[in-house]
Automatic annotation (TrEMBL):
<dbReference type="Pfam" id="PF12706">
    <property type="entry name" value="Lactamase_B_2"/>
</dbReference>
<dbReference type="InterPro" id="IPR001279">
    <property type="entry name" value="Metallo-B-lactamas"/>
</dbReference>
<dbReference type="GO" id="GO:0016787">
    <property type="term" value="F:hydrolase activity"/>
</dbReference>
<feature type="domain" description="Metallo-beta-lactamase">
    <location>
        <begin position="7"/>
        <end position="202"/>
    </location>
</feature>
<dbReference type="InterPro" id="IPR036866">
    <property type="entry name" value="RibonucZ/Hydroxyglut_hydro"/>
</dbReference>
<dbReference type="InterPro" id="IPR050114">
    <property type="entry name" value="UPF0173_UPF0282_UlaG_hydrolase"/>
</dbReference>
<dbReference type="InterPro" id="IPR022877">
    <property type="entry name" value="UPF0173"/>
</dbReference>
<comment type="similarity">
    <text>Belongs to the UPF0173 family.</text>
</comment>
<protein>
    <recommendedName>
        <fullName>UPF0173 metal-dependent hydrolase C491_13122</fullName>
    </recommendedName>
</protein>
<feature type="region of interest" description="Disordered">
    <location>
        <begin position="207"/>
        <end position="226"/>
    </location>
</feature>
<keyword id="KW-0378">Hydrolase</keyword>
Length: 242
């Protein structure tokens, strides 16, 4: 599985021959790319409807959309998407097969209104667990699994559900504070998830979320977690192995 962070919460995930783009927002200071520089993905995954997560979604409207039914409806009207998983999107707790990838939608504790001339309810905010095998009760040591936590606060579901049952090898967690978890809560999330690899995201984009990722590294170490923290350079691929 290949992971590429494009700044903020935008990730390109390749599983086998399948390309997934999560929360496309390229107007951030970390990336040097424009949406036109990115190969057309097979799937676009949207955790929620805030502008810093869907601003560039319309540039990839030929892809299949993976989002809540409410957000799918909005994106069909606003951005011209014509195809969504299941024809209508998915919802929390569900797993869908996206060619070579299995995508499970999990909860995120956040808000999800879209503030336009008419306020839009985009459904529940979410995170995504992406794996090359279908999640089952039986642990599969050969599988490779990545968890994108979306915009979330610290929540016990990470410790009680996502970590022990979906078993991610790696997690991208927001640590910008103010709108999401800050470094110390994000570090607790990493510990609860029991992952081998941790990536900070959703930081340094705007003044309220400016953070030093070295503090995140220090906080992760302070939990006693064995996770290796990777402060990625944007647009550089990272190979994740089981």
């Amino acid at each position: 599985m290949e992971l590429t962070w494009h700044g903020h919460s935008t990730w390109h995930v390749t599983v086998g021959d399948t390309d997934l783009l999560i929360d496309p927002f390229f107007d951030n200071p970390k990336t040097g790319l424009e949406p036109s520089d990115v190969d057309e993905p097979d799937y676009v995954l949207l955790t929620h409807g805030h502008a810093d997560h869907i601003a560039d979604a319309g540039e990839f409207s030929d892809a299949t959309l993976v989002a809540t039914p409410e957000l799918v409806s909005y994106c069909e009207e606003e951005f011209g998407f014509e195809d969504a998983v299941g024809g209508m999107g998915m919802n929390l707790g569900g797993t869908v097969e996206c060619d070579d990838a299995f995508v499970t939608m999990v909860r995120a504790d956040h808000t999800n209104g879209i503030m336009t001339e008419y306020d839009v309810d985009a459904g529940m905010p979410a995170g995504f667990v992406i794996s090359d095998t279908k999640p089952t009760q039986v642990a599969d040591e050969e599988s490779t699994t990545f968890y994108h936590a979306g915009d979330t606060s610290l929540m016990t579901e990470m410790r009680e559900v996502v970590g022990p049952y979906l078993e991610p090898d790696a997690a991208a967690v927001p640590m910008g504070d103010h709108f999401t978890m800050g470094p110390w809560q994000a570090a607790v999330a990493v510990d609860w998830l029991d992952v081998d690899h941790a990536f900070p995201q959703h930081y340094d984009t705007f003044p309220p979320i400016e953070q030093d990722p070295e503090q995140f590294e220090s906080e992760v170490a302070g939990t006693g977690s064995d996770a290796e923290v990777h402060v990625l350079e944007a647009d550089e691929p990272f190979e994740l192995e089981s």
